[in-house]
Design a protein that fits this description.
The complex is a heterodimer.
Chain A (H helix, E strand, L loop, with lengths): L5 H6 L1 H19 L7 H18 L4 E3 L4 E3 L1 H27 L5 H19 L3 H19 L6 H32 L4 H11 L4 H18 L7 H8 L2 H26 L1 H4 L1 H23 L4 H22 L1 H28 L16 H4 L1 H14 L6 H15 L3 H27 L13 H19 L2 H14 L2
Antiparallel strand pairs in A: 1-2
Helix pairs in contact in A: 2-3, 2-5, 3-4, 3-5, 4-5, 4-11, 4-15, 4-20, 4-21, 5-6, 5-11, 6-7, 6-11, 7-8, 7-9, 7-10, 8-11, 9-11, 10-11, 10-14, 11-14, 11-15, 13-14, 13-19, 14-15, 14-18, 14-19, 15-17, 15-18, 15-20, 15-21, 17-19, 17-20, 18-19, 18-20
Chain B lengths: L5 H18 L5 H25 L8 E9 L4 E7 L1 H20 L8 H20 L3 H10 L1 H11 L4 H34 L6 H7 L11 H16 L8 H8 L2 H26 L1 H27 L4 H22 L2 H32 L15 H15 L5 H14 L3 H27 L15 H19 L2 H15 L1
Antiparallel strand pairs in B: 1-2
Helix pairs in contact in B: 1-2, 1-4, 2-3, 2-4, 3-4, 3-11, 3-14, 3-18, 3-19, 4-5, 4-6, 5-7, 6-7, 7-9, 7-10, 9-11, 10-11, 10-13, 11-13, 11-14, 12-13, 12-17, 13-14, 13-16, 13-17, 14-15, 14-16, 14-18, 14-19, 15-17, 16-17, 16-18
The chains are: A mainly alpha, B mainly alpha.
Chain lengths: 482, 496
C-alpha cells in the first residue's frame, strides 16, 4: 500500500486547497444560501491561497511513487490555471446572477476541473494522466449545460460530453496499447521501450496516434475540432473562457511530456510529417472558417483551433526552445482569450441567442473601456507587437526557425495575416460602424469589466516587458528536458 | 536624464502623451487638441536638440542608448541616429504639429481618439527610424499599423473601410515575412558567432556572409522578405495599389502622415537594411529595382495626369516621386544617395503641403474634384500663391527643394544607369505637365461655379501649419548644404 510521505502531501497542497474549497462551496450552497454573494469571492480566495501554496512549498520533482512530477513545468501550468480560475470566478458572479443560476455547484465544479487540469499537467504516468483528464472533463460537461433553461447550453453540454467520452476512450485505448508494449504505465518506461527498439514499433505507433488523438480532441486540433464552435457558442460565456484555455493548457503540457519522453523528433520521422500536417491544417482551417463567422463566440472557437495549430508548431520543435515556447504561448493565449470572453460575457443581451458581431456596432464610443479591452485582446491574438500575443508567436516561430522548420514559420505568419482580417473586422464593427437605431441594451457589471481590464493590462504589460514570463518558462522547461 | 536619454524622450514621449490623453475625459475636445499640439511641439524642440548635439563629421550612430530587454535572446532596446535617420526623425517631428493644426477643425468627431492614434503612430514612426535592434525595429514598425488603421477607418472618407483594410493587409503581408527573415538572421548570427543577437550592428557583420547563389538561395530570399515589406511601403510598382485608396480616403492629417513619413520608411528600410545586410543580393537585384523604379516614375506620372480628383492626383504623383528616390538608392553613388535621402525629405514637405492645401479647400467646399473649381485665383490670392509655390517645388523648379533632390539623383545615377536616367527625365516633364495643368484648371480657367465666389482665403491656423513647410521648401532650395552635410559622412560610410 502506498503511504504518502509529507513531501507527497505538501507537493499537492494547491490541489488540496482547491478540493477543500470545492467542498466548502457546496456546504455554503446547501446550508447558507443567503451567503451566495460570497461564492465567487471564496473561489477567488481559494485560488489565491492555492497559488501561495504553490510558491511556498518546494517543488520535489517526481512524487507519489512516480505518478506525478511536481516540477517547475507543473508549477508554471498550475499558476496559469489558477489565474484562469480566478478570472473566471471573478466574472462569473455577475453573469450567473443575471441568468439566475448563481449556485455553489458552479464554483465547486470549476475548482474540481482545475484540480483535474493540474493533475493532468503534472502526470508522468498514463494512469494519473487519464484520471486528471476525467476529473477535468466531467465537471466541464456539467458546466457547459449549466444554463438549464436554454436549449443551446444543454446542447453544448451534451455535445461536449459525447465527444469528450470519445476522446477519453481514444486516450485510454492508446495507453493500453503502449502499456502492452512497455509493460509499464510510466511515460518514462514507454520512452525507454521506444529507445531500446530504435524507433516506434507499429503497435506503439498506433497507441501513440490514439493518445495524440485523444489529447487532440481536448485541444480542438484538426481533425478533432468539430465540437468546438457549437460548445463555445452554447456554453455560459465564463465557462467558455475557462474551457478555451485550461483544458488546452493541460493537454498541451501532457502532449509535451509524451513527445519529449518518447523523443519523437529523433526517433520517428513520420511524427514531424503527421504533426506538421495537423498543425498547418488546424491553423489554416481555423483561420479561414473564422472569417465567415457572424457569432463572436464561434469566431473565437475557430480562432482557438488556429492558435492550437501555432502551439503545435512549438510541440513539434520540442526541446528547450519548443517547450518554453509552448509555455509562453499558453500564458499569452490565456490572457487574451479570457479578456476577450470577459468582454463577450459583458456585452451580451441574452444567452440563448447568438452573440452577433454586428451587435457590437458603435460600442467603441459608447462603451470605451470594454471595447478597448476587447480591441487589445483581439489585436494581440492577431500577433501585433508590442502585445503578448506577438511575444507568443515570436517565441514559437523563433523556435521553428532555429531548428530548421522555416516552412512552418512561414506558413504560421501567412496564417497570422489571414487571422488579422477577422480580428480587425470586430474592431471595425465597434469603432467604424454607427450605433444601430435599436441598440441592444447590454449590462454594465463592474466585476466583468474589471476582468477584461486586468486581462488587457496583462496583454500590454507582459507584451512590453516579457522577461518574467520568458524566464519562468525557460527555467521550467529545463526541469522537463534533460 | 535629458542628457543621456534625449533620443528616447523624442521617441517615447508621444506614446506617453497618448496614455495621458487616454485617461482624460473625452470632453472638452479642445483640451485634447491643445495638449497634443503642445506635446508635439515639445517633441519637435527636443528633436532640434538632437540635431544640435549631433556631430555631422562622424559617420557612426550617435546619441546611442542601449538597455537590456530580453537578454536571453540577445534583444535589447538599442537606439541611435546617424545623419540619414536624423533628417527623417526631424521631418517626422516637424510634420506632427502640422498635422494636428491641419486637423484642428476638420476632425470634429472622436477628437480624443484621433490624437491618441496620432501620438502612438508618431512613436512608431520615430522608433522605426532610430531602432538599432531588429526586434525593436519590428515592434515599432508594426506599432504604426493599428493607429493608421483607425485614422483611415474612423475619420476617413466614404470608402474608408475598404482603404483601411487594404492598407493593413498589404502592410502585414510584407512585414510578417520580414519577421521570419529577422528570426533567420538571428539564428545565423548565433550559428556563426555562438551568441544570440538582434542588434543591427552585430547582424550587419554576419548577415552579408549568408550564401547567395541564384534566386532560391538564402540571401536572396531574405532580401526579398525584407524587400517586399519595404517595397509595399514605398510603394514600388506593382505594390502601389493600396496607396491611392489610402491617400484619398484618409483625412487630411492622415494623408500628410502617410505621404510625408510612412512611405519614407520603405525607402529608408531599403537603404538601412537591404543594402547593408545583404550587399551581394543588393547587387543581384539592383537591375530589378531600377526597372521597377522607372516604371513607377512613368506609370505614376501618366496615371496622375488623368485623375479628376486632386488628392488622387497627388497620390499618384507620390508613386512617381518615390520612384526617383528608389532610382537614386539603386544607383548607389554618393551624390545619388544623398539626393535620394534629400528627396525623401522634399517629398514629405511638398506632398505634405499639397495635401494640406487640398484639405483647406475641401473643408470649405467638400469636394476635391478639379472640375468643381476653376478661376479661384482672384478670390483666394494668398492660397493661390502658396499652392503655386508648392506646385513648383513638386515639379522641381530650380531654387526650390525639389530641384536639388532630383538633380542630385539624376546626375549621380547618370554614370551608372544612363538609360534609366533618360526615362526618369521624361517623368520630370510629365510631372511638370500634370501639376501645372491641374493648377491651371483649378486656379486660372474661367470661374464657372458660383459657390466658389464665397471661398475664404487661408486663415491664420492654416497659415501657421503651412509656414514651416514653405520655409523649408525655400531653405533647402537655396541652401541645401545645411541638410546635405550632416548626412554626408553617414552616406559615405554606408556606401563603403
Amino acid at each position: 500500500m502506498l503511504i504518502p510521505s509529507p513531501t507527497d502531501l505538501s507537493s499537492i497542497a494547491p490541489e488540496i486547497v482547491l478540493a477543500v474549497a470545492a467542498g466548502v462551496l457546496l456546504l455554503v450552497e446547501a446550508f447558507l444560501p443567503g451567503l451566495r454573494r460570497l461564492l465567487a469571492p471564496i473561489t477567488i480566495v481559494a485560488s489565491l491561497i492555492a497559488a501561495w501554496a504553490r510558491f511556498h512549498f518546494p517543488l520535489p520533482g517526481v512524487v507519489w511513487g512516480g505518478l506525478l512530477s511536481i516540477d517547475r513545468v507543473a508549477a508554471f501550468v498550475d499558476l496559469y490555471i489558477l489565474a484562469a480560475v480566478l478570472l473566471t470566478a471573478w466574472m462569473s458572479g455577475a453573469f450567473l446572477r443575471r441568468n439566475d443560476v448563481d449556485r455553489g455547484e458552479f464554483y465547486s465544479l470549476l475548482l474540481l476541473a482545475a484540480i483535474g487540469a493540474m493533475v493532468m499537467a503534472a502526470s508522468v504516468d498514463a494512469l494519473t494522466l487519464f484520471l486528471g483528464l476525467e476529473l477535468l472533463s466531467i465537471p466541464l460537461y456539467v458546466l457547459n449545460g449549466f444554463l438549464r433553461g436554454h436549449a443551446i447550453s444543454i446542447e453544448a453540454g451534451l455535445k461536449y460530453f459525447v465527444v469528450g467520452a470519445f476522446a477519453s476512450a481514444f486516450l485510454v485505448y492508446g495507453f493500453a496499447l503502449m502499456y502492452g508494449m512497455a509493460g509499464s504505465t510510466r511515460l518514462e518506461a514507454m520512452g525507454q521501450t521506444v529507445l531500446d527498439g530504435g524507433g516506434l514499433s507499429p503497435v506503439m505507433a498506433i497507441g501513440l496516434a490514439m493518445v495524440v488523438g485523444g489529447l487532440g480532441f481536448k485541444l480542438a486540433l484538426f481533425p478533432f475540432h468539430a465540437w468546438a464552435p457549437d460548445v463555445y457558442q452554447g456554453g455560459p460565456t465564463p465557462v467558455t473562457a475557462f474551457l478555451s484555455v485550461v483544458p488546452k493548457g493541460a493537454a498541451l503540457v501532457a502532449l509535451l511530456r509524451v513527445v519529449d519522453g518518447l523523443d519523437l523528433l529523433r526517433l520517428s520521422p513520420h511524427w514531424v510529417t503527421a504533426a506538421g500536417i495537423i498543425a498547418v491544417a488546424s491553423m489554416t482551417l481555423g483561420n479561414i472558417v473564422a472569417i465567415v463567422q457572424r457569432d463572436i463566440k464561434r469566431m473565437l472557437a475557430y480562432s482557438g483551433i488556429a492558435h492550437m495549430g501555432y502551439a503545435m508548431v512549438a510541440i513539434i520543435v520540442a526541446g528547450i526552445d519548443g517547450g518554453s515556447a509552448v509555455l509562453v504561448y499558453l500564458a499569452a493565449y490565456t490572457l487574451m482569450n479570457v479578456g476577450a470572453f470577459a468582454v463577450v460575457a459583458l456585452l451580451s443581451e441574452r444567452e440563448d441567442e447568438p452573440h452577433l458581431i454586428s451587435e457590437l456596432a458603435g460600442l467603441g464610443w459608447t462603451r470605451p473601456i470594454a471595447a478597448f479591452a476587447l480591441t487589445l485582446c483581439l489585436v494581440s491574438l492577431a500577433g501585433v507587437p508590442p502585445l503578448i500575443g506577438f511575444t507568443g508567436k515570436f517565441v514559437v516561430f523563433r523556435a521553428a526557425v532555429n531548428h530548421g522548420f522555416v516552412w512552418l514559420a512561414v506558413l504560421g505568419v501567412i496564417n497570422s495575416l489571414i487571422s488579422a482580417f477577422y480580428y480587425l473586422r470586430v474592431v471595425y464593427v465597434m469603432y467604424m460602424q454607427p450605433l444601430p437605431r435599436r441598440a441592444p441594451v447590454f449590462p454594465s457589471e463592474r466585476s466583468v469589466a474589471a476582468v477584461a481590464v486586468v486581462a488587457a493590462l496583462g496583454v500590454v504589460l507582459l507584451g512590453v516587458f516579457p522577461m518574467p514570463i520568458l524566464e519562468a518558462a525557460h527555467r521550467a522547461i529545463l526541469d522537463l528536458v534533460r | 536624464m535629458l542628457d543621456t536619454s534625449l533620443l528616447s524622450l523624442v521617441t517615447l514621449l508621444p506614446a506617453a502623451g497618448a496614455l495621458v490623453l487616454a485617461v482624460l475625459p473625452a470632453r472638452p475636445a479642445a483640451l485634447h487638441r491643445w495638449l497634443a499640439l503642445a506635446l508635439s511641439l515639445v517633441v519637435f524642440i527636443l528633436s532640434l536638440a538632437v540635431w544640435f548635439r549631433f556631430d555631422p563629421d562622424l559617420p557612426s550612430f550617435q546619441l546611442q542608448e542601449q538597455l537590456s530587454w530580453i537578454p536571453q535572446y540577445g534583444i535589447s532596446y538599442h537606439i541611435g541616429v546617424d545623419g540619414i535617420s536624423l533628417l527623417l526623425v526631424l521631418l517626422t517631428t516637424l510634420l506632427i504639429p502640422v498635422v494636428i493644426l491641419a486637423s484642428w477643425s476638420s476632425i470634429d468627431a472622436h477628437v480624443k481618439g484621433f490624437h491618441i492614434s496620432l501620438l502612438l503612430l508618431t512613436t512608431g514612426m520615430i522608433g522605426a527610424f532610430v531602432a538599432l535592434d531588429l526586434f525593436l525595429f519590428y515592434v515599432f514598425w508594426e506599432l504604426m499599423l493599428i493607429p493608421m488603421y483607425f485614422i483611415i477607418g474612423v475619420w476617413g472618407g466614404p470608402r474608408r473601410i475598404y482603404a483601411a483594410v487594404k492598407f493593413v493587409l498589404f502592410t502585414m503581408v510584407g512585414s510578417l515575412l520580414m519577421l521570419v527573415a529577422i528570426l533567420y538572421l538571428a539564428w545565423y548570427h548565433q550559428l556563426s558567432t555562438g551568441a544570440w543577437s538582434y542588434d543591427y550592428l552585430a547582424l550587419a557583420a554576419t548577415a552579408p556572409r549568408i550564401a547567395l547563389a541564384g534566386l532560391w538561395s538564402p540571401q536572396a530570399l531574405l532580401f526579398l522578405a525584407f524587400g517586399l515589406a519595404f517595397a509595399i511601403k514605398v510603394p514600388m510598382f506593382p505594390f502601389h495599389t493600396w496607396l491611392p485608396d489610402a491617400h484619398v480616403e484618409a483625412p487630411t492629417g492622415g494623408s500628410i502622415i502617410l505621404a510625408g513619413v510612412l512611405l519614407k520608411l520603405g525607402t529608408y528600410g531599403f537603404l538601412r537594411f537591404n543594402r547593408t545586410l545583404f550587399p551581394a543580393a543588393w547587387d543581384f537585384f539592383v537591375p530589378l529595382i531600377v526597372v521597377l523604379a522607372v516604371i513607377g516614375i512613368l506609370y505614376g506620372a501618366l496615371v496622375a495626369m488623368v485623375q479628376p480628383d486632386i488628392k488622387k492626383l497627388v497620390a499618384y504623383s507620390s508613386v512617381s516621386h518615390l520612384g526617383y528616390v528608389m532610382l537614386g538608392l539603386a544607383a548607389g553613388t554618393v551624390a545619388s544617395t544623398q539626393g535620394a535621402i534629400l528627396q525623401m525629405v522634399n517629398h514629405g514637405l511638398s506632398t505634405g503641403a499639397l495635401f494640406l492645401l487640398v484639405g483647406v479647400v475641401y473643408e470649405r467646399r467638400h469636394t476635391r474634384m478639379i472640375a468643381d473649381y476653376g478661376g479661384i485665383a482672384g478670390i483666394v490670392p494668398a492660397y493661390t500663391g502658396l499652392f503655386l509655390l508648392v506646385t513648383l517645388s513638386s515639379i522641381g523648379l530650380p531654387g526650390l527643394n525639389g530641384f536639388v533632390g532630383e538633380f542630385l539623383i539624376l546626375a549621380g545615377s547618370w554614370k551608372v544607369f544612363p538609360v534609366a536616367v533618360v526615362f526618369a527625365g521624361l517623368g520630370i516633364i510629365v510631372g511638370a505637365v500634370y501639376m501645372l495643368w491641374m493648377f491651371q484648371r483649378v486656379f486660372w480657367n474661367p470661374l464657372v461655379h458660383d459657390e466658389n465666389r464665397t471661398l475664404t482665403d487661408v486663415n491664420l491656423r492654416e497659415l501657421l501649419a503651412l509656414a514651416p513647410l514653405v520655409v523649408l521648401i525655400v531653405w533647402i532650395g537655396v541652401h541645401p548644404t545645411t541638410f546635405l552635410s550632416p548626412m554626408e559622412a553617414a552616406v559615405r560610410s554606408l556606401l563603403g
